[in-house]
Amino acid sequence: xxxxxxxxxxxxxxxxxxxxxxxxxxxxxxxxxxxxxxxxxxxxxxxxxxxxxxxxxxxxxxxxxxxxxxxxxxxxxxxxxxxxxxxxxxxxxxxxxxxxxxxxxxxxxxxxxxxxxxxxxxxxxxxxxxxxxxxxxxxxxxxxxxxxxxxxxxxxxxxxxxxxxxxxxxxxxxxxxxxxxxxxxxxxxxxxxxxxxxxxxxxxxxxxxxxxxxxxxxxxxxxxxxxxxxxxxxxxxxxxxxxxxxxxxx
Length: 250
Prior knowledge:
Layout: E1 3-7, H1 9-18, H2 25-34, E2 39-43, H3 53-62, E3 66-71, H4 75-84, E4 88-91, H5 111-123, E5 128-132, H6 136-145, E6 149-153, H7 155-159, H8 163-178, E7 182-186, H9 194-198, E8 205-208, H10 210-219, H11 221-233
Parallel strand pairs: 1-2, 1-8, 2-3, 3-4, 4-5, 5-6, 6-7, 7-8
Helix pairs in contact: 6-8
């Protein structure tokens, strides 16, 4: 069965909205691990819109699972990866105006840049995965470039789940395995789409972030409101303490 990598970028997005310390990225990583995450994934973007350099360094020192660093193949970010030495680097395309990663790496256009990044990172002992579209020819090119793994872009499947997209992902996954690659999947997967894909044998890991963070907002919101209600209503005289002012659980 596939492992689960949890992307916590959106925790940093909320934090950066106020440029403060909350919500804490490290706390999010610990809670994700407590929930069963096998890997923590973060994307250190060139514009630092969410995850910051310090986050990556702290996560590398502190988490008990694996650290997967998503990154563009630029000299600046490669230098940080070589300093931090994550358990894996996933090379992704990056455009500053995009809301989120919109597609897989264009290996035909950026072949030399990607090849050079793979050589530098894997030469330092950091396995490299390439985030690519689920296309057999692209998977085979990733293998020729020397990557250890590929992460298949699941955005089309997540938006239009069904047999055609599932078949395309399966074909690309099988091509990756045949080429000696470890095959991951990610982007847009949610609670209705991850399960069916996980039933296809061969995927090693799913990287999922947005849907998990969205669900966490509501799965934990009632308790958070109850705690705050207890604080604002607590008069200091209740021997049961703040928790005694919480509404009963249902």
